[in-house]
Specification:
With about 575 residues, this protein is mainly alpha-helical. Helices cover about 70% and strands about 5% of the residues. The protein is built from 24 helices and five strands. A three-stranded mixed beta sheet has the order 3-5-4, with helices on both faces. The protein has a two-stranded antiparallel ribbon with strand order 1-2. Strand 4 and strand 5 form a beta hairpin. Helix 6 packs antiparallel against helix 9 and helix 15 packs parallel to helix 21.
Length: about 575
């Protein structure tokens, strides 16, 4: 079914509760395994119906945040989701206590029970109001950022539209564009501080009510991190600081020479080539057609997937006023349909959407027939392997998007990806410190951000921008507000995706086969189990971080030299 024709009806919470509780009673009172299995299937069907409505409402709200109907629906789900979480908590408790647990594990898989064990530790009815408040605060951040209308060169632009000017090869243009962006955040700093202050406090209060000392371990449980620890993540950050940050610094020196500037300012950092980073050639329609050709040639599986997306109009790619910034992939269970949401802006971002978000969509398309909703998606860091991995697996087709600048585009992609990990660990360490010290004032948080920046991005120069000099950069990062502790998942996944790129140079066929196998497994295994199946080394090893980082550095350096010699 085409997305525009998918019917939406607000779920009747009372009716869902009644049917859910009857199914749980049947699960408790089951006299034989088949009755317990049937009760679980009914619960899963109810959850799929609710989440289908939720996804439709959320996507349509994001398509136009000014749409009053779907804005009200978003508010409805902010209030309703905690009650669905309460029902899910009851389901997990009942599942774990079932007399037919062994038979249910054989039918639905052990990972469902691992998830249940973690989830029952993240909820009590006493935190229902706190969860509602958390959702509303996150929505208020989304509304504020979506409302941005930035004056630039006589035009009013959204933050997504402004990004194209921030990546201009003209230094003065990108300086003014960046200043315009951060002027918006500076003007709204008090409100941004207030929203985050309330979020930190409400999350800390929930953690205390659930018996945790801080929100940090609760956040790890909410993200279903079952086979690595807070200490493992700290080791990853340390390995990056010691082994990778010096390589990034060497490349920053090369960047200055390539841009022919004495000092690298904050608005120069994303620009890696003197003539500017390559931009894709063609309109949205032409880029989508290029993606269709690419997925047609990549494999039978990718061809089937992308044709499904096109036939059912499951992408919204144009940037416009009132549209939520950024991009994401969602899934509508009752229609077994992924959906790709993005804001094209004429930069390499557009190609990344057609690879990164398509990687997410490909994975959930391959996992769409699982009976267990928990298996549609894996844990978030594994999800990002699918997206970042697809970005690199698409390299042989870059000429479709960039024409004569395909090699430059690959260089910028790899180089930007390596640069990113330093920022990624900044965000993660910042969040650990904030939630371990929930009473910090907004000023103390900004000072903390600057201290962490100095560890991982010591070369950053804000050119006298007071808002950024004061430590405000992190406030533009949606994940910090809406998805706490998610951001390190991009770093974990990046080191896995780098390995896929390296292997694709050696044996493209087997690499794509392992990648597809990874997607097929969905969320049926935890992260480390998925990595083993896909023949990817764990990034929590300093040796892996060092060897992968060094390999990528050498690839980037050789590509720089090759481009120099050909110019």
């Amino acid at each position: 079914m085409k997305f525009c024709k998918m019917p939406y009806e607000r779920p009747n919470l009372d009716k869902i509760k009644g049917e859910f509780e009857r199914a749980l009673t049947n699960l408790r009172e089951a006299q034989k395994p088949s009755q317990a299995v049937e009760a679980v299937k009914i619960v899963n069907s109810l959850r799929n119906s609710f989440h289908s409505a939720l996804s439709l409402a959320y996507i349509r709200y994001c398509m136009n945040t000014r749409d009053e109907f779907y804005a009200k629906e978003r508010n409805f789900y902010d209030e309703t989701l905690p009650h669905m979480e309460a029902l899910l908590f009851s389901f997990y408790e009942t599942l774990l206590q079932s007399r037919f647990k062994e038979e249910l594990e054989k039918t639905f898989g052990l990972q469902l029970f691992n998830i249940a064990k973690m989830t029952v530790r993240t909820f009590k009815p006493t935190i229902l109001e706190d969860l509602e408040r958390e959702n509303k605060l996150s929505t208020s951040y989304a509304n504020l950022v979506s409302s941005a209308q930035v004056e630039f060169d006589g035009r009013k632009l959204t933050l997504s539209q402004l990004k194209a000017y921030e990546l201009s090869p003209d230094r003065d243009t990108r300086r003014r564009a960046c200043e315009a962006r951060y002027e918006f955040f500076a003007k709204n700093q008090d409100q941004l501080d207030e929203i985050y202050d309330h979020l930190v406090r409400v999350r800390h209060e929930m953690a205390r009510k659930l018996g945790f000392e801080s929100f940090v371990p609760l956040a790890y449980l909410r993200l279903k991190r079952s086979d690595y620890t807070i200490e493992d993540v700290a080791k990853l950050r340390s390995a990056i600081q010691i082994k990778v940050v010096p390589l990034i610094q060497k490349l920053r020196e090369k960047q200055k020479k390539m841009l022919e500037i004495d000092r690298l300012k904050y608005y120069d950092r994303p620009i890696l080539l003197k003539e500017g980073n390559p931009r894709p050639v063609g309109s949205r329609v032409e880029l989508v057609e290029a993606a269709r050709v690419m997925y047609e040639q990549m494999s039978d599986a990718t061809r089937e997937f992308f044709n499904f997306m096109l036939t059912n109009e499951l992408m919204d790619l144009d940037s416009r006023e009132g549209k939520y910034p950024g991009g994401f992939c969602d899934f509508i269970p009752d229609h077994k349909s992924p959906f790709i949401f993005a804001n094209f802006n004429g930069t390499s971002h557009d190609v990344e959407v057609l690879t990164h978000e398509a990687g997410h969509a490909f994975q959930v398309y391959r996992s769409r027939n699982f009976e267990v909703p928990e298996y549609y998606w894996p844990t978030t860091e594994a999800c990002e392997i699918h997206s970042m991995g697809m970005e690199f697996l698409a390299w042989p087709w870059m000429e479709l998007f960039y024409k004569d600048c395909a090699e430059q585009a690959k260089l910028v992609h790899a180089w930007s990806a390596l640069n990113f990990v330093a920022y990624g660990v900044c965000v993660d360490e910042f969040q650990h410190a904030v939630y371990q010290n929930p009473d910090l004032t907004p000023q103390e948080r900004r000072k903390l951000w600057r201290q962490i920046e100095a560890k991982y991005m010591p070369e950053i120069d804000y050119d006298g921008n007071l808002y950024l000099e004061d430590g405000g950069l992190w406030q533009q990062q949606m994940h910090i507000y809406e998805s706490p502790f998610y951001y390190i998942d991009y770093v974990i996944a990046q080191f896995c995706a780098f390995q896929l790129l390296k292997r694709s140079f050696e044996d493209r066929v087997s690499t794509l086969r392992d990648y597809t196998k990874l997607c097929d497994l969905g969320g049926s295994l935890p992260l480390q189990g998925l990595l083993k199946v896909a023949n990817i080394h764990s990034p929590f090893s300093e040796e892996v971080v060092e060897s992968v980082g060094k390999w990528l550095y050498e690839l980037i350096d050789s590509q720089i030299n090759r481009l120099k010699s050909s110019s």
